[in-house]
Amino acid sequence: MKFKAVYFWLLVVLNLTLTHAFICPNNGQLIPTEDTCVYVRNDPTSYMDVIRRCDNSSGGPAKIQNAFENSFIFTQFSALIDSPYMYIGVERKNATTWTYADGSPLTYQNWGQGEPDNSNPYAACAVMTVDGKWRANNCTGPAPYACTLNGDNYQCPDGWVYNRTATNQGFCYYVQKFLYQDQYNWVLYNFAEAESICQMMGAHLASIHSPAEDAFLQMLLYSNVQNMNVTSPCDLQFAWIGLTGTGILGNGTWIDGTPFDYTEVTVPFIDVVDWAVANDPGCFAGWMPAYESNRNARLVCKMSAY
Ligand SMILES: *[C@@H]1O[C@H](CO)[C@@H](O)[C@H](O)[C@H]1NC(C)=O
Ligand SMILES: *[C@@H]1O[C@H](CO)[C@@H](O)[C@H](O)[C@H]1NC(C)=O
Ligand SMILES: *[C@@H]1O[C@H](CO)[C@@H](O)[C@H](O)[C@H]1NC(C)=O
Ligand SMILES: *[C@@H]1O[C@H](CO)[C@@H](O)[C@H](O)[C@H]1NC(C)=O
Ligand SMILES: *[C@@H]1O[C@H](CO)[C@@H](O)[C@H](O)[C@H]1NC(C)=O
Ligand SMILES: *[C@@H]1O[C@H](CO)[C@@H](O)[C@H](O)[C@H]1NC(C)=O
Fold this sequence. Notes:
- With 306 residues, the protein is an alpha+beta fold.
- It folds into two domains: 22-149, Mannose-Binding Protein A, Chain A (Roll); 156-304, Roll (Mannose-Binding Protein A, Chain A), CATH 3.10.100.
- Helices cover 22% and strands 27% of the residues.
- Residues 33-148, 168-281 form the C-type lectin domain.
- InterPro entries: C-type_lectin-like (IPR001304), C-type_lectin-like/link_sf (IPR016186), C-type_lectin/snaclec_domain (IPR050111), CTDL_fold (IPR016187).
- Keywords: Signal.
């Protein structure tokens, strides 16, 4: 009996280990001891297109968070690519501040001497050069590129994102992307339409239950619309979440039926309305009541992970 119990738990643990050590899809290289896939691609293109192509592998332009990752990616670059430089996922947001492509602050930097040279306003993309160092470059010159993909996302359907530290509760998130200005992608919806789209995917508009989950969602929703070539770009920054109420605890409901146990709203809104979230440093960040209740926004859905 005792032996059987030990054997059972061994199998359970072994099974967990096996499911966690996944294989990178599309010939990605798994960074040893990390759950991150790297894709170094030798098909030169502009940085905007790099974002789209990385997204096609469910990833983003390479987020390099420590020296080990930099050296792993540099090794791939040296081995596979004959080019003086390649794009990585580091962008300039204003005159002096550089961030990762997802808008989060850099936790690691490996600039070459005199870099980043911020004197050229068009040098807003970082490239890795042949010594593994980074340099400020324009974003238009066609160059090879590196993408990274967080392996945890494979607990979610394609195109959905998982975050172990922020949610620790096993949820996947889907953000409608603005990668292409076309009739399928760059479209805004009202609250009811947005919820019905989430429901078609077996989900609901996202609910938020902790400061960490809030921070994670705002990171996902990060956008840089003030740099988009459209009129009134700030109108494009909002995404519906599943909250209806005044924004104050005890007076609102999440459309997925979970308890209303977290809010970042400190002053109640006068009416019961639907809520959206934004995160654009050039426009507005935070939860926003849809007092023009026909305010149209994109959507962020949430469902349980596998
Ligand atoms: C993304 O993948 C689809 C299907 O494989 C392909 O048709 C499309 O051209 C790809 N887009 C980019 C930007 O690579
Ligand atoms: C650039 O953005 C950062 C972070 O948002 C901010 O702290 C800094 O003051 C900004 N700098 C300029 C010159 O606008
Ligand atoms: C972009 O940068 C590359 C490499 O630094 C350079 O060769 C190219 O002329 C630049 N393009 C523009 C439009 O400045
Ligand atoms: C998860 O979310 C936290 C914020 O709560 C963020 O700091 C972290 O970078 C996220 N991780 C990934 C892999 O997105
Ligand atoms: C912005 O868009 C307009 C209309 O689509 C176009 O004529 C113009 O060249 C664009 N400007 C830039 C800098 O891309
Ligand atoms: C919620 O707020 C609305 C609008 O201010 C108010 O009419 C209603 O009585 C409130 N309900 C509760 C349970 O506080």
